[in-house]
Amino acid sequence: MIDGLLWSLVLAIRGTGLHGVVSQSAWMWAALESLHFIGLSLLIGTVGMFDLRLLGFARHVPVVALHRLIPIGIAGFTLNATTGVLFLSGFPEQYFFNAAFRVKMALILMAGFNVLFFYGRVFRRLEALEPGDQLPLAARVTGGVSLCAWIGVMCAGRLLTFFRPPF
What pTM did the predictor assign? Predict the structure, then answer.
């Protein structure tokens, strides 16, 4: 039943003009790959640094100072989400029936819930800390979960091409 729903979605996507633009352009895929890599670099470069700080690295750097870089990471994530939708529109069957894609989406969802928990429960306690102060356990855990989730997203994304469906 789920496969039937997925095939219906694949056919619907393949019937869009966006599918034609992405799948038939000689340079579109390469351009999207480059933009996706830039977005990933922005995301991991900023969020990864922040996560490492939460884990206790660079204790002399104030958490709030590194937090100012997070909008750059959000811009990177937005770029990745946009290019990801375009990838999906070009070859939906390559994604919907791919275990690596499902793992990647689950890890992105986990990272999203982690962000909600961090800003809902943890961040306010960090604003008052001085450089060198020990961060609360919740901050260290959310930093570790975030870093692991994003590394997992990168690995699953790379594995997409190795686990292509056989059709």
Answer: 0.92
Strands (E), 7-124: none
Q: How many helices (H) and strands (E) does the chain have?
A: 9, 0
Distance CA 72, CA 83 (A): 17
Number of structural domains, the chain?
1
| End-to-end Cα, the chain, rounded Å | 18
Q: Are 54 and 142 in contact (CB under 8 A)?
A: yes
Domain, as residue range, for 67: 2-159
Residue 164 located in a structural domain: no
Q: Per the domain annotation, does 165 fall within a domain?
A: no
Which single residue is written with the structure tokens 């579109």?
28
Length of the chain: 167
pLDDT digits (tens, 9 = 90+) for 56-71: 999 999 999 999 999 9
